Request: fold
Amino acid sequence: MTTNDTPVLRVAGRPVGRYVTRPELPARLSPRPYLHPVTTLAGTAVTELSPADHTHHLGVGVAVPDVEGTNFWGGRTYVRDQGPTELDNHGAQRHTTFQLRDPDGFVQELRWVAPGAELLRERRTVSATELTDSAWALDFTFSLTNVTPGPLSIGSPATNGRPGAAYGGYFWRARKESEAPRVFTAGAEGEAEIHGTRADWLALAGSAWTLVFAGATERTRRDPWFVRTAEYPGVGSSLASDERLPIEPGDTVVRRIVTVVADGRLDRDAAATLIRKAVSL
Reply:
């Protein structure tokens, strides 16, 4: 199942995702484990790694631009009244151990390390499940615990003064194609209508693939969606949209996102049916 400690997720025996546990990346990219490539059951890639437009976008994972001033997202840091700024403030997510590792998933322990200090410990649970002969589900839970003696808070460019830029949390950098993907929810259509809103599920449909995202807990569903289609294709669930998210010493923040990975361009009914099935598993 593994090569050089790199698990490969499998669904019905077919590889659908490679998990890079200890990436060798420059500090500016905020090194962290990620899934790439992720593919449909037919083998179509639906992630990108370090694309030219945003070299710090690393497939599928957890990335946060501001944990008490440390950048776990990569790239420039948004500074209030100054804008995107190059700072030497990048953190790293370091693999500690796998508590469980099977062909269809794993449970991982990680350390979120800032220059000179450990800020958070994470337990990450990831599993892959077949839904149909042309769709599978990625179930991704992360739990962040404050291991410092004082309070921490998670922020975003939005909370630091840049409206509409509430990225940070679970993030999926999708495959870029010649045409922008379609994005829709049960009741809305298009990036402008959906970005920054809350919806039970959200679908991103490319030329021959569809991703359907859903918060799988009540708390996760309260986080707005971060959506990009015109500039690049990406979807995230925002931990800090309107205000910073505080974490007291010893407290834990938990989020669970389920993503359907399907061949073909799904319509609303098909997307809703598959994501309901995936979340109920």
